[in-house]
Amino acid sequence: MPLILLFSPWPGLTWIAIISIWMLHTFIISTIPLAVPLEWNVFFMFCVGFLFANFSPGNGYAVSDMNPTLLVLVVCVALTPIILGALRPQYVSFLVGMKQYAGNWASGTFSFRNKEMEDRINERIVKSSDNQIDQIEPLFGKEISEIFIQKAVAFRMMHPMGRMHISALMRHVDSLDTRVQREGEFVSNVLTGWNFGDGHCLDERLIEALQERCHYEPGDVVVAWTESQPAFSKKVQYRVIDAALGTVEKGWYHNDDAYNTQPWLPDGPIPHTITWQLPGYEPAGVPWPGNGGRT
Fold first, then answer.
1. Range of 149's domain?
2. Are the C-beta atoms of residues 239 and 247 closer than 8 Å to each other?
3. Torsions phi, psi for 68 (to 5 deg)
């Protein structure tokens, strides 16, 4: 539809595209999505009608009518990070690459050996606020506060990448039931003081900085991390990072395998392909389920 808006010389076809865009944004607004600036959607509903109903390509406002020609180059350059973000998301922020509209972006889940390991963040790092659990516990008590915080992990499990996070943690830690799981974005927000959802803000660089200050032992903090799903491929890259050891495993999973299972993983970890593992490293959890016949 955007291509029709840019190049269609026929008003009738242009109006079909305009109405389609209106329907798209109306649907997005109707779902009341989490952490989405809905004023963006309202703005584009006004914007598409004003720009393309009033200034159509057939009336001298086509891309070929741009003057000077340098403007065409500027527009093409502006599209570069979006295209790169779709094809090679590891190089571009999900916001610049418009991955939020692809329904996935880089993310991670932290697993602490116990609450004492999480508390070490408060004790050894100078930051703008305490961990989220410690902020709300005086208001709601320990049990209810933990339920609130675990809602973020449950939310992540409603999406394919969260199912891979827990699948990886099931393999790499001895028991999830005795450990403390935290949404990676929450940990990143506290450590950096910047409330931003891009998983690139909580990759090996942040974990290395955390380790420099907290001096964890192997297994104390294990992070399952996934990249955005690239366009035209259902292979999603993942990594497992131990704060004390660094990256211990790399691989990929097929999005369909994560999508087709239930969020609570009744059949155990989803199939995934291991492409590299730290020499001498042995995962402490359940056995690898195999790659599901994927190649």
1. 107-277
2. yes
3. -80, 170
